[in-house]
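The following block was generated as part of the benchmark described in Methods. Ligand: uridine-5'-diphosphate.
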Amino acid sequence: MRLERTSDDRPSLSIVAPCFNEVESLPTFVERATQACVTAGVGDFELVLVNDGSDDRTWETICELASRQSGIVGVNLARNYGHQLAASAGLSLCRGDRVLLIDADLQDPPELLAALMSRMDEGYDVVYARRRKRPQESAFKLGAASAFYRVLDALSEVRIPVEVGDFRLMTRRVVDRLNALPESDRFIRGMVAWLGGRQAELLYDREPRFAGQTGYTLAKMLRLAAAGITSFSTAPLRLAIWFAGLGALVAGGLILYILIGFLVGRTTPGWTSLALMTAFFGIGQFACMAIIGAYLGRVFVQVKGRPLFYVDEIVGSPIGSPLQATRARRAD
Ligand code: UDP
Ligand code: MG
């Protein structure tokens, strides 16, 4: 079986496509992807088609295509895990020196491969495709996606490019690093941005779906948005600090007003103590939440267990001998 290959017979390219109810698109997708490889001059490639618990005959179609054409690897997941996990499964099983992650519904044109490859030849680790146009997608989806990308960009500690999905070409080194990240909530485009290295973009026009309907229901979109924001930002946890600060300001004025009212005798018995207690406990609670949020944010970052940093290259002989430097580079 193809998946048992050893590292020395890696194909030069893997195309990884998660498939959920893509029975109608698959034959054309395979044809166009194969043609794109020929055009890009890639002779040895594998096409990893991951069936993400489809309810139609997607898996049977993948098996049929794999029996007809060599180089097709079918992966059947136990159930529907969602796009990000289906893509992660394909990325962890593929073996190519370069990996193209692409949707199977032909919204991402496989023909972009040649341009992505030649951009990568310039020395990039990741070349991601940025959407210039998204025809035939609902106004709601475009609006929601645009708002989400902007919020995410504002909150996230790393720059996650806007209008960029998961359609991208990555080197084996990036894919290995991506696969090694242990977090279970996987937001691939954010994780790749977080990995760093040399990344370039290529503009393209997103095409309408070849057939079928989007598998991204509103619930799945919201889940993806939540995964993106919570995995790449602890800012929401820090909201309590702002509330505590704002609360302290408002309560400061309020306390002054309460005390003056009490001193000039313009108050109802019992109101002063009640109002003071409310203000005091209100700020107290916000302050405690802010403290818990600060710790929780640090616990969350620690629990994700991401490596602290990656070294891409060491030059000269900064750590002892040149031999050690060479080893450090190779260890990757
Ligand atoms: N997909 C998947 N599992 C899902 C939903 C979608 O593997 O639960 C695949 C789908 O077959 C397609 C890609 O992920 O290849 C993108 O999904 P879709 O086209 O439905 O999303 P959209 O392009 O509308 O955002
Ligand atoms: Mg699509």
